[in-house]
TrEMBL record, chain A:
Protein name (record): ABC transporter substrate-binding protein
Family: Belongs to the leucine-binding protein family.
GO biological process: amino acid transport
Source species of the chain: Kangsaoukella pontilimi
Signal sequence, start to end: 1-24
Pfam families given in the database record: Peripla_BP_6
From TrEMBL, chain B:
Protein name: Branched-chain amino acid ABC transporter permease
Protein topology in the membrane: Multi-pass membrane protein
GO-annotated cellular components: plasma membrane
Biological source species: Kangsaoukella pontilimi
Positions of transmembrane segments: 6-26, 38-55, 61-84, 96-118, 138-159, 188-211, 264-283
Chief location bin: membrane
Keyword Nucleotide-binding: no
Any one Gene Ontology molecular-function term assigned to this protein's record: transmembrane transporter activity
GO biological process terms on file: amino acid transport
Pfam families: BPD_transp_2
Taxonomy, superkingdom: Bacteria
Keywords: Amino-acid transport, Cell membrane, Membrane, Transmembrane, Transmembrane helix, Transport
Length: 399, 288
């Protein structure tokens, strides 16, 4: 599953046709590894692959990456890892040794990034992750000094939900009763285990709690169980197919608490596409400064180039990690991996999600945690220090 | 009561998933690992017609069915018939068919990805509650359940009451002897395979009204279908239906009364138990 993008080929042809290039032009080989098949392919098709395409387009359109008077066009070498950590490792290894890629974009999702981190480390590639959420960031960054994190940690993500619920409770919009469910997969289990103590500490009573296997085809027992517990808030640490399934089942069963939260994929355009006006007021993981010009401009370009809308969570940070790589190569004035890694470590960056700098664990400390569908747009309502949050509003039924 | 009905609805879904494979494996003797891909393709057809032209998935199935039938017919004639001819034993045919259809599955996934991308096929259709004896159920699931009843009932009648159906069952039991009594084995095998593909695609179209599919989810459905077909007994419509319903009710029972996290464990426990006590499946014949 190897595909070199047409951009590089097209630019090469253009260069030949002109015969007098303005100045020496070369190519940087950039590796991209992610799921095109397997369980996470659906998510990667929304948040990851279109951004790879968009970034290559943007860079080449603007004349490439400039390093000391030479512009480098980027050529993307893509591999499908089938959502299989073993394949991710093999693909990164192949990019490093056989394709001799100059740089490799971080893979998609927490698990695949953690799997690939030792290989990135071994070959000295800087690894700016876009979709890795973990509470092991401290351990990971100690072990892999070239690994960076943009999307935040599980504690922060769960904490954002607790903050939003606490605010709503203080405003008298909801009571104390929370039904919490999670998908029995790495993400769901970690979020549930850090979310529960935080909820209890904030004085919430967990009236219903359960997990369900990934790929469950009928979620009505979960929703019925939650409904029978009569909650004021419903929180699901869910993955894409079940985010849709839980929402639809809640509509059918009439589970309509004032706060309804589902995690991954709530921020996808397909969510609003499917549920329409009923999505109004649904809380979900992520969020962006949706009214900010930076995001609006990015979203318009994303749609024009890839034909699809970006999501309201991981899309922009994913693009931001590519921007960071771009800026670091130019800033370091070198295509040497070590020099670029060094530059990333010691600088802050201006990106599509705003300024990014690193805390002591190589992590971007300011990230969005909770968003809410308001008027057809998924707006950030809670973050750990980003500008542009709007107030969360109570959900009023599914109509 | 609630558990029973929810379980029956889920069982109906499972019957839709498994029935096509039963026809292909049981009757046409092709272990089709690309079965799930046709289910996804049917779902994609429904999604596409619904989003592009607001065509109800219940009408789309009348487009999906003949198209899937034709494509499966072609696949059988072009790729699989040479295997059938070449195979010296049923075992060899099975191995060859598994390898071929495994490759076909990859090809179909790649094709879908290349043309339509890997995004979710997600839309909302008949996501309305219906109330029955004080409990609410999703209308799209109820509709799919009744469609499953119609499809399975139709297949059952066709297989038992018509000459073609009878001949196909004869092929399922003894393909070599069937030829001796004047049954056109190659043609009817192709028919059974194509019909299986059509049933699967229709199932996919119906299921897509409440499940979220993407290009690479097919294999999950192939696995589920395989379990149900083997539990019910290869080549028996009744077995598939009963196994699907048992699985649906068991999973709902466990999810409601014990813990949703244990549904998979319960399903596989049932599978193991059936295989221990009836290795040939509920309605299967002992291999001679």
């Amino acid at each position: 599953m190897k595909r070199r993008t047409l951009f590089a080929a097209a630019t090469a042809v253009a260069t030949l046709a002109l015969t007098v290039p303005a100045f020496a032009q070369e190519t940087l080989k950039i590796g991209a590894v992610g799921p095109k098949t397997g369980p996470l392919a659906g998510g990667a098709a929304v948040s990851f692959w279109p951004n790879v395409q968009l970034w290559a387009h943007d860079v080449n359109e603007a004349g490439g990456i400039t390093v000391g008077g030479t512009s480098y066009m980027v050529e993307i070498i893509e591999y499908d890892d089938q959502t299989n950590p073993g394949e991710t490792i093999k693909a990164v290894q192949r990019l490093a040794t056989q394709d001799e890629a100059d740089f490799i974009l971080a893979p998609y999702s927490t698990g695949l990034n953690i799997a690939a981190a030792p290989i990135f480390q071994r070959y000295g590639y800087p690894m700016v992750t876009h979709t890795a959420i973990s509470d092991q960031i401290e351990d990971l960054s100690n072990k892999f000094p070239n690994m960076y994190f943009l999307l935040g940690g599980a504690t922060g993500l769960a904490g954002g939900v607790v903050d939003v619920l606490t605010d709503m409770r203080e405003a008298g919009e909801i009571g104390n009763r929370v039904a919490m469910v999670n998908v029995a997969d790495a993400f769901g289990i970690e979020l549930a285990s850090v979310g529960k103590p935080q909820l209890e500490e904030a004085g919430f009573e967990i009236v219903y709690e359960t997990s369900y296997p990934l790929g469950t085809q009928d979620l009505s027992p979960v929703i019925n169980g939650a409904k029978d517990s009569n909650p004021d808030a419903f929180v699901a640490w869910s993955y894409p197919p079940d985010t849709f399934g839980l929402t639809e089942q809640a509509q059918i069963a009439g589970l309509a608490p004032k706060a309804f939260y589902t995690a991954v994929a709530t921020a996808f355009p397909a969510y609003a596409g499917r549920f329409g006006a009923a999505a109004e007021g649904v809380l979900g993981a992520g969020g962006v400064y949706a009214d900010g010009d930076q995001f609006k401009e990015y979203a318009a370009r994303h749609e024009a180039v890839t034909g699809a809308k970006p999501d309201f969570w991981a899309s922009a940070p994913t693009y931001a990690t590519f921007e960071i790589l771009h800026q670091a190569i130019e800033g370091a004035g070198s295509t040497d991996k070590e020099a670029v890694a060094e530059y990333i470590a010691n600088n802050s960056f201006e990106t599509v999600i705003g300024p990014v700098d690193w805390d002591e664990n190589n992590s971007n400390a300011k990230y969005w945690t909770v968003g809410q569908w308001q008027g057809g747009v998924f707006k950030g309502v809670a973050s750990t220090g980003r500008d542009g949050a709007v107030a969360a509003m109570p959900k009023s039924g599914w109509e | 009561m609630d558990i029973l009905f929810t379980g029956l609805l889920l069982g109906g879904t499972y019957a839709l998933i498994a029935m096509g494979l039963n026809l292909q494996y049981g009757m046409a003797r092709i272990m089709n690992l690309a079965n799930g891909e046709f289910l996804v393709a049917g779902g994609f057809g429904a999604f596409w017609f619904f989003t592009a032209g607001q065509v109800s998935p219940l009408l789309t199935i009348f487009i999906v069915a003949p198209v899937a039938f034709a494509i499966n017919w072609l696949i059988y004639v072009v790729f699989l018939r040479p295997l059938v001819k070449r195979a010296k034993s049923r075992g060899q045919l099975e191995v060859d068919a598994i390898l071929t259809t495994f490759g076909l599955a990859f090809f179909l996934v790649g094709l879908t990805l290349a043309f339509f991308g890997g995004d979710y096929f997600s839309y909302s259709y008949l996501a309305r509650p219906v109330t029955f004896i004080g409990e609410t159920y999703a209308l799209n699931r109820v509709v799919a359940f009744f469609a499953a009843v119609v499809i399975c009932g139709g297949l059952w009648l066709w297989l038992t009451r018509t000459r073609a159906g009878m001949s196909i069952r004869a092929i399922a039991v003894a393909p070599d002897s069937a030829r001796l009594v004047g049954i056109d084995v190659p043609r009817l095998s192709a028919l059974a395979f194509a019909l299986g593909g059509a049933v699967t695609a229709v199932g996919g179209a119906l299921i897509s009204t409440f499940l979220t599919l993407d290009a690479s989810t097919g294999v999950l459905f192939t696995l589920k279908a395989l379990i149900i077909v083997i539990m019910g007994g290869v080549g028996d419509v009744r077995g598939t239906v009963i196994a699907a319903l048992m699985l649906g009710i068991l999973e709902t029972f466990v999810a409601t009364l014990i813990d949703p996290g244990l549904t998979l464990a319960a399903a596989y426990l049932l599978f193991v138990a059936i295989l221990l006590f009836r290795p040939q499946g509920l309605f299967g014949r002992r291999q001679a």
